[in-house]
């Protein structure tokens, strides 16, 4: 799985803890986790296309959260970064070799192996959709209650 | 996700439908789905290392199933082919940038973002472990009741 998901979730949390009304630049967001700005920018653009962040162009531009963390699920972020495709890609090997002479009708329903993999992916997606970034923020603050203050203090010094 | 999983599950089903007491060669297994024998052989070796297939070396050698399909789950096959590593790999970005001066103690528990991704992967693994290859065989035979006969007829002609 792409590092992009790790970066994207952390940046959304960072933006929430900052609570800034102004957009935050890619450079500053990248410095929060020492990430390479051009690569991070690609992920930020993907989050903007998905309607999770808003992008403001220009010298004083940057990114801000469009909706509260309660309304952003892990599934939203993973889909924004990885795309909506299934991880398991069936290449229809059932149609080749011993299946080559079978009637086309036999292939109208998805392969049962594909269905089994898809069932498991649905379980994964449901588990991602059941967790919001607000849940993750709450768990983090249970471990580090001063997280918001730390983030704002870091931001003022950087 | 690797094509190896698709190939591996289909080959296990093929071996079960054949019901041969003799090991079946990589070449014949590959021809069942028009797969490249050297690449398929890599996956078959992985299934053998995982104790799903037994490998017999030599000119008349090949592979056979070691246990009934009831005792092989989709999780067994995916782990054999993809390895046991988590798909989401946390690179510990929380320790960098704004986290750089935090006490080591703060990092003793896994990052809450990592935990969220892991929760979803557990759901995926549970769903894979809940499906045996016998379930898939049963679903296939419900759609194609003569599957076993077809496979054996193909084998005799090839
Ligand atoms: S043909 Fe692709 S999973 Fe069966
Ligand atoms: S540091 Fe890796 S997921 Fe948070």
UniProtKB/TrEMBL annotation, chains A, B:
InterPro entries: TR_Rrf2-type_CS (IPR030489), Tscrpt_reg_Rrf2 (IPR000944), WH-like_DNA-bd_sf (IPR036388), WH_DNA-bd_sf (IPR036390). Signal peptide: none annotated. SUPFAM superfamilies: Winged helix' DNA-binding domain. Pfam families: Rrf2. This is RrF2 family transcriptional regulator. The lineage of its organism: Bacteria, Bacillati, Actinomycetota, Actinomycetes, Streptosporangiales.
